[in-house]
Each structure stands twice: as structure tokens, then as C-alpha cells.
UniProtKB/TrEMBL annotation:
Gene from which this protein is expressed: dinB
PROSITE patterns (UniProt xref): UMUC (PS50173)
Reactions listed under catalytic activity: DNA(n) + a 2'-deoxyribonucleoside 5'-triphosphate = DNA(n+1) + diphosphate
Protein name: DNA polymerase IV
Site (Substrate discrimination): 54
UniProt-listed PANTHER family: DNA POLYMERASE KAPPA, DNA REPAIR POLYMERASE UMUC / TRANSFERASE FAMILY MEMBER
Record organism: Rhizobium metallidurans
Length: 429
């Protein structure tokens, strides 16, 4: 993966000094954080991933948490959203049930997720990425692919050094860290970014791709989860190297289109380009309850709170939606989805909520629910949203009241003002 000789191109990630002499530490500043690779200055495709993103933001904002195990999540019915690297030492992992996480690390500090804060920080990081190249393809709030081919003249540096400068800038200006994977294709750039977390910078070149992948488990390949890995193991296939020896036609005969993916990715063949993502198709919010809820009266304030979150995101993103979607999951994990198309698009929590409770009322027949969510689809430009309603004459007053509440929340915080639906309620979530 990386080399370490005097003839191998490299630089120091801390002071950016070129490394012309052999050694494990920077000749200029003494740092051990060197990156060397034969193909270092010829690779242009990167995957950038923020390290333990939610937990890192919380530690940034509260220095007292710096050395403590931190879990972002909550509720005995919930799961771990993110665990810091201290908590991971104890075996805590993302998507682990909270009760298991606390069994593994009872001293952990548990913090409920603050998505508004994380979205804001994620946008700050994204804006810095877009200063490097217009070809930024986000995968989530805290990771993205970047194609930096052709940016050398713009930054007066090859992509590898530009990425190292970016990592230093994020750490200095935003206060969190990132890990970078640099390669010639998406698959290996993503693999590389996971190799040396946190604050990693790993390189995988074309010449070493096959040998690098050979000893690795088949789960390294995108799309090979536990279930499919078990299928492969039943067929005697555990490593990528075994896939490399098999004929693509045979793999396709056994596993369909997934067989072709196995064949190509096992050999480091990935022709997908970095491209701008399609626009979002929906905006939604949901919550899982501590204890199952069946009563309509208890579900209403939760639905109102979620509707306000959806409306806030629509307004901040300058979009509207025309179809309201209610999502519910029963105590036995069966999902129910109900939707209703509005005559006109909306950005208003009031309209989302009122449509949602009409759908909700038909579902509250004594069934116990463990999750509820509300959202909108059919997203569009907001210019046609929420025209005056000549039938519901009070709708204009409610819209004006909502606008006034939005201003107060923007100025003083989201908890500044509440509606009668949510005020004083104890949310079971």
C-alpha cells in the first residue's frame, strides 16, 4: 500500500515538507505522519470521511469529553448512531443496540443526537470540499468522493498535497478530523480511507490493487453483507483472492449481477465516475419510542414535533413537497406507510401535521407502535407553495403564527417557543 524508501515520492502531512531522504520521521519537523507511495502524485480520486463525526462534534463543543467514551444515541430501544474511538476500544459500534453498548461500556457518556448541529458542521466541511473541486459526490452528511484531476494548476499542488492541506484546514478551522483515501477508483478510495482512522491518509495504487485485495475478506466488497458472505462461505469462498481466480461467467451464473461485481471489484476494476448527486427525493423525520405507544393522544404531540423538523428542513433547503407520507412501525416490526397528495406544495409544519393526523387517526386502533415518522415527497420549487386557502380561513393566521415562531427560533434557538400540541408534554422518545 505505502512504501518507505528514499526514491519513493512522499511528504509530511504536518508540515508538508517533501521527503527526499529515507526515514520514518520528517526531516524538517520530526513528525512520523509521513505519506509515501510510488503512485502518490499520479492519483486523483479521493474518499474523505469525517472521523466518528457526531461524537467528534460533541467533543469539540465540550472539551471535558475529550478523553471519555462518548456514544451518540439514546433510549433503551434505540441504537448507537456514532461511538467515539475511546468507546470503540470497549467494543461499541455503530448500529449496536444501546443496551448492549452500555453493557460493553457502562461508563460511557450518552448524548442524544443533535442533527441540526451536525448538518451545519457537515455543510461547512462540504463547502471546503467544493473549494477543492466541483466534482464532489456526497455519500452522507460526513463523507464524499472527490475527483481532483485537472486541479493541479488551480492549487499549485498535486491532488495528494491538496488533500493533506484540506485535512489540516478542517482540523484547524472546524475542529474535527477527517481520514482520506486516495486511489484511482471509488472502491479502493473508500477502502483506503478506512485503513488508518482516525486522521488517516492511505494510498492504494493500480500496480498493487490485486495483491492488496487478495488476502482480504469478501465483506470488503460493497454489497457483501453478513447474509451474502454466509452464502459465499457455504460455497467455500472467504477471501477476495479466491474470487480473483474464478471466471466472471461462472460467478454470474452462480450469483447473477452480483457475480459480475464480485469479479470486477476483486480485481480492482471500478469504472464509476465521481458525479454530482441527484436532488433529494424526500425530506422526513422519525423517532423510535422508549416504550410502545398505542394511544392517539400520545402520538399527536410526537407527530407535531416531527412535522416541525420536516418544515424547518424544507425552509432551510428552499424546497417544498406536495405528498405527505406517514410512516409507522408496529411493536412486532411490521411497517405501515400511508400518504396523501396535497392540492398545492407546502413548506408549513401546520399543513404537514394536519394531513399527518388525518392519516394517523385511521391507524390508531389499539395497535402498539415503536416508531413513527412523517415526511414529504414530490419535492419542488417553493414558489407555488402554500397559496391562500379560501375554505380554511384560519390557515392564513396559522401560517403567520408559524412564520413568527420561525423567526424567534432562528434568533433564540429551536426551544424558544412551542405550540400547544407539544408544550409540557413528556415525549416518550
Amino acid at each position: 500500500m505505502t512504501a518507505n524508501s528514499a526514491k519513493t515520492p512522499g511528504f509530511c502531512r504536518d508540515c508538508l515538507a517533501e521527503q527526499k531522504a529515507e526515514g520514518r520521521r520528517c526531516a524538517a519537523c520530526g513528525s512520523p505522519r509521513l505519506v509515501r507511495h510510488d503512485e502518490l502524485y499520479g492519483l486523483t480520486l479521493a474518499h474523505i470521511d469525517c472521523d466518528a463525526f457526531y461524537a467528534s462534534v460533541e467533543k469539540r463543543d465540550n472539551p471535558e469529553l475529550a478523553d471519555k467514551p462518548v456514544i451518540i444515541g439514546g433510549g433503551k430501544r434505540g441504537v448507537v448512531s456514532t461511538a467515539c474511538y475511546v468507546a470503540r476500544i470497549y467494543g461499541v459500534r455503530s448500529a449496536m443496540p444501546m443496551f448492549k453498548a452500555l453493557e460493553a461500556c457502562p461508563q460511557a457518556v450518552v448524548i442524544p443526537p443533535d442533527m441540526e448541529k451536525y448538518v451545519k458542521v457537515g455543510r461547512e466541511v462540504r463547502a471546503m470540499m467544493q473549494e477543492l473541486t466541483p466534482l464532489v459526490q456526497p455519500l452522507s452528511i460526513d463523507e464524499a468522493f472527490l475527483e481532483l484531476g485537472g486541479t493541479e494548476r488551480l492549487h499549485n499542488d498535486p491532488p495528494a498535497r491538496t488533500l493533506a492541506k484540506f485535512a489540516r484546514r478542517v482540523e484547524k478551522e472546524i475542529g474535527i478530523t477527517v481520514s482520506i483515501g486516495l486511489s484511482y477508483c471509488k472502491f479502493l478510495a473508500k477502502v483506503a480511507s478506512d485503513l488508518q482512522k482516525p486522521r488517516g491518509f492511505s494510498v492504494i495504487g493500480r500496480e498493487e490493487a490485486v495483491s492488496f485485495l487478495a488476502p482480504r475478506p469478501v465483506t470488503t466488497i460493497w454489497g457483501v453483507g453478513k447474509a451474502f458472505a454466509a452464502t459465499l462461505e457455504a460455497d467455500g469462498i472467504r477471501t477476495i483472492g479466491q474470487l480473483q481466480t474464478m471466471d466472471e461467467t461462472d460467478l454470474m451464473r452462480r450469483y447473477g449481477t452480483m457475480g459480475q461485481r464480485l469479479s470486477r471489484l476483486s480485481r480492482g476494476i471500478d469504472d464509476r465516475d465521481v458525479h454530482l448527486n441527484d436532488p433529494a427525493k424526500s425530506v422526513s423525520a422519525e423517532t423510535t419510542f422508549f416504550d410502545d405507544i398505542s394511544r392517539y393522544e400520545e402520538l399527536v404531540p410526537v407527530l407535531r414535533n416531527l412535522s416541525e423538523k420536516v418544515a424547518w428542513r424544507l425552509k432551510k433547503s428552499d424546497i417544498a413537497g406536495q405528498t405527505v407520507v406517514l410512516k409507522m412501525k408496529t411493536a412486532d416490526f411490521k411497517s405501515r406507510t400511508r400518504n396523501r397528495k396535497l392540492e398545492d406544495p407546502t413548506q408549513l409544519a401546520d399543513r404537514i401535521f394536519r394531513t399527518g393526523i388525518e392519516l394517523l387517526r385511521k391507524e390508531t386502533d389499539g395497535t402498539k407502535f415503536r416508531l413513527i415518522g412523517i415526511g414529504v415527497t414530490d419535492l419542488c420549487d417553493p414558489t407555488r407553495a402554500d397559496p391562500p386557502d379560501l375554505i380554511d380561513v384560519q390557515s392564513g393566521r396559522r401560517a403567520a403564527a408559524e412564520a413568527a415562531m420561525d423567526k424567534l427560533r432562528d434568533k433564540f434557538g429551536k426551544g424558544t417557543v412551542e405550540t400547544g400540541y407539544t408544550f409540557g408534554t413528556k415525549r416518550n422518545q
